[in-house]
Design brief:
Mean pLDDT: 77
Distance between the termini: 60 Å
Oligomer: single chain
Shape: globular
Number of helices: 5
Helix content: 40-55%
Largest sheet: 3 strands, antiparallel
Order of helices and strands: HEHHEEHH
Structural class: mainly alpha
Radius of gyration: 18 Å
Strand content: 5-15%
C-alpha cells in the first residue's frame, strides 16, 4: 500500500475532528438565533424570505457562522440588522 504524500502545512484530520470543526462552523436555526440575539421564529422567517444567508438541507435550515458574521458586519451599511431588530422578536435574557 502506497503512503499518501504529505504537504507542508497540510495535516490530515480524523473524520471526527472534521465533523467537530464543521459543527462549530455550521449552525442550525436555534444556534443562529442565539448568535444573532433574535428568536428562532425570526430566523426561520428571514431564511424563507432570503433576507439572511442560509441553506436548506432537506427540511432543515443551516447557517454558516462566517457568513452570518459577515452579514452582520455589513448590516450597518445596508440597515439589515436594524430591520431585524425592529420587526423581529428579540430574545430576552432569562435572569
Amino acid at each position: 500500500m502506497a503512503e499518501q504524500p504529505s504537504f507542508p502545512g497540510f495535516e490530515q484530520n480524523s473524520r471526527e475532528q472534521r465533523i467537530a470543526e464543521m459543527d462549530e462552523e455550521i449552525l442550525d436555526v436555534t444556534r443562529a438565533a442565539r448568535a444573532l440575539g433574535v428568536s428562532s421564529k425570526t430566523v426561520y422567517s428571514m431564511a424563507r424570505q432570503g433576507k439572511i444567508p442560509a441553506t436548506r438541507v432537506g427540511r432543515e435550515w443551516r447557517f454558516s457562522r462566517k457568513m452570518l458574521i459577515d452579514w452582520v458586519a455589513k448590516s450597518s451599511e445596508n440597515d439589515q440588522l436594524v430591520t431585524v431588530l425592529r420587526n423581529g422578536k428579540i430574545r430576552g435574557r432569562r435572569g
